Write the C-alpha cells for this entry.
Amino acid sequence: RTGETVHLVERDGNEVVYIYKVESIHGAIRMVSRIGMRRPMYCTGMGKAILAFQPDSKVVDYWKGTEHESYTAHTIVRQEAFLREIHEIRCQGYALDNEENELGVRCVAAAIPDWQGNVSHALSISAPISRMTDERINALVPELMEVRNEIASYLGADCKSITPETKY
C-alpha cells in the first residue's frame, strides 16, 4: 500500500531476525536486509520499538549486555542517548531508524503487542532518505499503526490500551 519496503522481525535474544520482507515498487535501490538476517536491536527501528515495551531496568540490562558497533555515523552508541530515544518512542508510539543501521535508509517502525501486552515482533516501512522525509514519515505513521493494530488484533491485543507509554 505504501510502495516502500516493509519488514517484519522477531526478537531472538538481543537481536532481531528478519522473518518477512516485501520489496519496494521503486526497484532502483535495494536494501541489504534479507530474510534470516540478524541485527542488534539498538540500531534498528524495529528493535528499538520492541525494547520500548520493556521496563527501564530491562532496557538498561539489554544495553549493558550488548556490544555497540557504529554501523554508520548515525548509530547510537551512548547509553544516555539510547535511553532518551526509548523514552521518545514510548511517547510517540513508534520508532525511527535515521540511517543508524544502513547509510541512506530511514525507517519508521512499530512493535506488535500480543493479548498480554508482550512484544516479540515489529514491522517497519523503509525507504531511501530521498523519499523518507519527515513529512513522508508523518504521512506513513497512521498507515503503519493501522496495520500494526490489525495484526495485533489477530493476536488478541487491544492496541488502544496497550502502548509502550501506558505499559511503562
